[in-house]
Amino acid sequence: MSRPSQRDPLPYLVLPALALAALAVMSFPAWLTLTVAGIAMGCMLFLAASGLTLIFGLMDVLNFAHGGFVTLGAFIAVSVVVTWAPAIGGVALVALAVLAAAAAGALLGLVFERGLIRRVAGAPLRQILITMGGAIILQQALIVLWGAEPLPLPRPENLRGSVIFAGAALERYRLAVIGLGVVVFAALALTLKRTRLGLLVRAAVENREMVESLGFHVDRLFRLVFAAGTALAALGGVVWALHAEMVTADLGADITILLFITVIIGGLGSVGGCFLAALLVGLADNYVGFLAPKLALGTDILLMLIVLLWRPRGLLPVAAP
Amino acid sequence: MMRLLSNDRPGHWLLALLLVGLLLGLLAAPFLFPGTKALAVAARIAIFIVLAASYDILLGYTGIVSFAQTTFFGLGAYGAAIPLALGGGGWAVVAGGAAAGIGVSLVLALVMALLSLRVRAIFFSMITLAIARFAQVLAAEWRGLTGGEDGLTFTVPRLISPAFRLFPAPLLGLPISGPVIAYYLILAVSLAAFLLMLRMVNSPFGRVLQAIRENPFRAEALGYRTILHRALASVLAAGFAALAGAMMALQLRYTNPDTTLSFSLMIDILLMVVIGGMGTLYGAALGAALLVLAQYYLEPLLAGLARLTGGVPVLPALFDPGRWLLWLGVIFVLVVYFFPAGIAGTLRARGRAA
């Protein structure tokens, strides 16, 4: 299988080109604030969407319930903060929330895979319907457990406020999110590129039958990736919730479309493409929101259409069709 | 009779009975169940039969999963609503507005189909999801035209306005008021639209759609232009959905994003078609009736269950009247697993086996 996109530098140039174009039409401090906000939004998107793209790449399953796992993570964060808020404070509390959410996401992901997805493997129409049904059940179940009213989630003290740099106000929380996003991306990329497990996953994404015929259990691999993907979604939920400082059961459904747009732009199945696309969506959203607020609501869809007309299979497609 | 049904027999006595019951029930509803709520429920059933059937053309007959059916429904609704809200009150305005809404739907469906039906099914689904969302946000934000989240409230032509009486005296105990006339108009148009769709899916064109659903490569190899057929199916489905939307606007006398464009509405349509039975049209009709009745009458039932289980910790929340979607979701998943053909398809298969 040829992989021409590997040496194709053009998709990588889109990001700096967009940032430079934006710099040309606004003042530097405004640009810096928006760029940091855009990258932070991109990192949040990446955290929530990376699992979606991995699961799709490996098993051709597009999980319409993925957003539900994002909501789950957000609610877990609320519960953790409510339970331990005075006793544990600051970053330790956030770390605890992240761990709890990831664990819950992985566990529920395994249940979800076992109960719903495994039975409809290889039937695309039923798969879409089943994961849609799963999304409804998951969202409603979360309302049963946490209620339909929005729950407040105050950010810990040391993640509030901004730092002033070069005349621009940069929110502390956004910088922290960028750090987390980069670390998760690096960890994912290293796992995929440098470990035996990652090698198997990449091989299975490219040609599942071949890996199976070599004697590896791709289903087990898939279960693992599915759980990791839903754990990442839950982690993303914690980050979104702390950003909005408010959680409702609609959180996941609201961002599902943005997640889909991200993985489509990136090229389904590609983690690197997902990161690139997430940053692109985040930056474009912030720039357009500042320059032409009226256009903001159509930015993502317009971006997707442009990218698809240019590269019908996304920016960094995994393998030839 | 069979000609009217395009020789598409229900195929099982129970299915035939259910359908005849549904038709008679709808015909007699204003007399059997007086009151504005019952009339609204019956009209909603008639309209949703058209909407669900139009979606079945896509999902059941052609095997396309689109989440943008509400977009066309909304276009039809706003098409009828906007000129009425601008001050016009005549039938020409209604017809012109509805025709404009349907026209825009046809064009949008064609553009969407040609842009994205070439890619894989899953891509198309995601793109339609994004477009549906965009339409909803657009309707909520474009206040000058659509009235934003509040929507548009308007007066309908005098013949179907609440104050109108056709006869001075009630007929069989029922005053023939504007809403009753509106209901029968809606029912007549719905029935005609349903029979027309039945005619379409049982035509050679409909057979090609089913061939594409079963095996697109083979259909292509047999010489059928699959893209063209799929695009045409999308366009026709969009047109009928817009027609249903225009009727909805006239029936409710208002239009807002929540009642015409929301994602939960799309989920309702999906549930109707899948539970009723994909690829039969009759199933879509049954599913529409079932879901609408459940929406209006299941909540009191759940409220009763919640009161019964009041002492137990989590159960009341499970049976909360607002949680009926949870149970429908469970039913939906079970149907997809165990009865993928839905009510109509399962009955029909039994009828064939017997």
TrEMBL record, chain B:
Main location group: membrane
Subcellular compartments: Cell membrane
Gene Ontology cellular component annotations, sorted alphabetically: plasma membrane
TM helices/strands, residue ranges: 38-58, 65-86, 92-115, 122-140, 180-198, 227-249, 269-294, 301-319, 325-347
Topology with respect to the bilayer: Multi-pass membrane protein
Keywords for this protein: Cell membrane, Membrane, Transmembrane, Transmembrane helix
Identification of the protein by name: Branched-chain amino acid ABC transporter permease
Species of provenance: Acidicaldus sp
